[in-house]
Amino acid sequence: MTVTEQKIQVGNLTWFYRESKPLGANTLGTVLLLHGLPSQSYCWGEIMEDMAGKGFRAIAPDWIGSGKSSKPDRRDFAYSTPAFITALAEFLAALEINQFSLVVQGFLGSVGLQYALKFPEQIQRLAILNTPISTQTKLPWQMRQWGIPLVGEMLTQDPLLIDRTLEKGSRYRINDEYLDVYRRPFLASSQAGRSLLATTQNLDIPMAMTEITTGFVNWEKPVLISWGMRDPWLDFSHTEDFIKSLKQVEVQQLPEAGHYPQEHFSGQISEVLLPFLRRQG
Questions:
Q1: pLDDT under 70 in the chain at which residues?
Q2: Which tens digits make up the pLDDT trace of 182-222?
Q3: Please, what's the largest Cα pairwise distance for the chain?
Q4: Most Cβ neighbours (<10 Å): which of 48, 156, 176, 223?
Q5: 3-state DSSP call for residue 124?
């Protein structure tokens, strides 16, 4: 199976996304995968191949401001949760995707959960991998410093922030070939750093956590929680109230995985995620 790279113009924004399609005409449906900070859609590659092999179409965009997608000036794009949600809705409409299963991971992946609460009729099933879902969550210092005036402006222009963040979060060394993909936008243009700065400054975690924890009390769709237990920033114990509030929930604990479990444990995730997505009802 191959994962293809695509671009689509939606209004003034160019979205880059990766897509994998199942062999044959039949499909079990579409799965949308949303990355966190400071990652890209590249992180989903192996899982997307697994999905195509089992009959799913998978779409993984780079968020606006990330990867190979547009990085507009903050005067033209607010980098706020409402701005991201509106842009995502327009992206999906342009691709004529009306219903899908949603997979989210990380800080900014939380915006995907807020999207689900706004458009629940579009979501068939929901999988959450190490994403903030508790009012106890705080943006870790590793990321919070990116939003500090002057300090953040310098830090976000350093491509090595990718190495430091992804490897500290995952607790494993990441292949240099992979890191090169993640660094490339920061080497190509200073706008990548400015977009990360603006995203971090506008990522209102307390507001988002209140909205998510109260909104999902009424959630009716099946949910899978797949959690890297060595996450240095999101403790699994903080997810317990959220899990208890859900009506249909399955939990997968990944004992050796960290904040970015798809980077090193994609096979273990797929073993649970794919049967979850295939189940009816």
A1: 1, 25-26, 281
A2: 999 999 999 999 999 999 999 999 999 999 999 999 999 99
A3: 53
A4: 48
A5: strand
Q: Which amino acid is at 137?
A: T
Helix or strand (DSSP H, E) at 109:
helix 109-118
Quick check: 224 and 125 in contact, CB under 8 A?
Answer: yes
Closest to 212 (Cα-Cα) out of 237, 239, 236: 239
In sequence order, the 6+-apart residues with CB closer than 8 A to the CB of 82 are: none
Q: What is the pLDDT of residue 86?
A: 98
State residue 263 phi and psi, 5-degree precision. Answer: -70, -35
Alpha-carbon distance 110 to 135, whole Å?
13
Q: What are phi and psi of 153, to 5 degrees?
A: -65, -35
In this structure, the strands spanning 30-34 and 57-61 are parallel
Which tens digit of pLDDT belongs to each residue from 42-72?
999 999 999 999 999 999 999 999 999 999 9
CA 199 – CA 161 distance, rounded (Å): 15
User: Residue 38, preceding bond cis, omega within 30 degrees?
Assistant: yes
Pairwise CA distance, residues 140 & 133, whole Å: 14
Burial class (CB in 10 A: 0-12, 13-18, 19+), 252: middle
Instruction: Using the CB atoms, write b or e for 11-46: b if 16+ within 10 Å.
Output: eebbbbbbbbbbeeeeeeebbbbbbbbbbbbbbbbb
- Take residue 45 and report the two structure tokens written for it: 């590659």
List all residues 6 or more positions away from 71 whose beta carbon is below 8 Å from its beta carbon: 64, 65, 185, 189, 191, 192, 194, 195
